[in-house]
Amino acid sequence: MRVKQAWCGAMMLAMAATPSAAQDPLSAIDWLDRQSLADDDLALAPNAARPSNAARPPGNGPSTKPAIAEPPVTRDARRPEITVRPLDEATSDAVGLLPSHVTGFPQSLWQGSDAARLSDLMIAQNVDGQPAMQSLLFALLLAEALPPAQSEGRFLMARVDRLIALGAVAQAAELLSQAHADEDRDLYARVLDLALLSGPGVSACEKLVEDPGMAPDLDTRVYCLAQGGQWDLALTTLETGRALGDITAARYSLLLAFLDPELASGLPTLPPSQRLTPLEYRLHEAIGEPVPTQRLPRAFATDDLTGDSGWKAQIEAGERLVRAGALAEQRLFAFYTLGRASASGGVWDRVQAVQSFETALQAWRCAGHGHDASGGLANDGGQRVGHRICQDICPAIGGSAAHRQCHGGLSTGRLAVAGL
What we know:
Layout: H1 2-17, H2 30-42, H3 100-103, H4 115-124, H5 131-142, H6 154-166, H7 169-178, H8 185-198, H9 202-210, H10 218-227, H11 231-244, H12 249-259, H13 278-286, H14 311-324, H15 329-336, H16 347-369, H17 376-379, H18 382-392, H19 394-411
Helix pairs in contact: 4-6, 6-7, 6-8, 7-8, 8-13, 9-10, 10-11, 10-12, 11-12, 12-13, 14-15, 14-19, 16-18, 18-19
């Protein structure tokens, strides 16, 4: 037993005396082990910066990887939120009438902005009397571009409301037609308003007859039922809404006078409300009590462009919309030449000035001078007519800035009619 213990002690002493280098495993690529050790040390702190070669512990040797100074890609291991939609699906907020190659705006014009703040800024912009700013605002409102994040139709609604406030009813209606507004109740309410501003709105009411849930209120449903020929159902719906308190007394009187004048004969006649809606405007017109558009918001002036309210109202509506940039100047000048002025003063002086200028210009062209009016206006008395245009028409349409521009054109021998 003692011999065996002595032999074991000798073996342990021999192993302790053996050099430690002999215990390390051999490696064909010695520097690879050292580099792996350094990488394992850094892996313990993934957000820590890699030390430079000078800061490495002695014996590790130079690193084969360059130092990386960029921030980490992510702060945690959670999956980021990703919005997924089909590539061929167009969002309503992205629709527009002017593509990017026309406006010069990039497709990412609105991305990165807050939808609510953009909507507030668009509605708050005052560009009256500023033709250049009006053109820019219209280009922004009608631009086709990717919408801001999480707009959910609010951005399109703000654009449409701003167009309506400017009197651009046709542009707003076209914008909604491309957005499939018949699938959204709030957007379809704007479709109805625009249809009523342009006429009786029969085509827009067809959708409500088929789908009553799309009606913005019970008043509109009653009106559309009547437009669809369902007069008895409309009257029943009206009485039910009145009994339930869903229809106000003023609106009830208007709708009843529209549906059955005999039943409404005993009701008192109420004046138009201070904030007249397109539906109330059409109801007053239908019962023979039309409301003049001069004191109404700009969008109502569109109804006078047809000429049904008279030539004078048509010209005044055209001037009002041209000032806002919602109507082309050429259409206004066409209104000026539709007939002969029957009186003097006000709008009739502007009519006579334009017609006299047009006569002088045509005479100059017939004399063989082509379309260049330079120099010929003074010979035919057109210079005097031109000064009348600058004095009477330019301030009525474009304010003092247009007045100065008009006289500047006359001083050079030309009158930029289209730019008034």
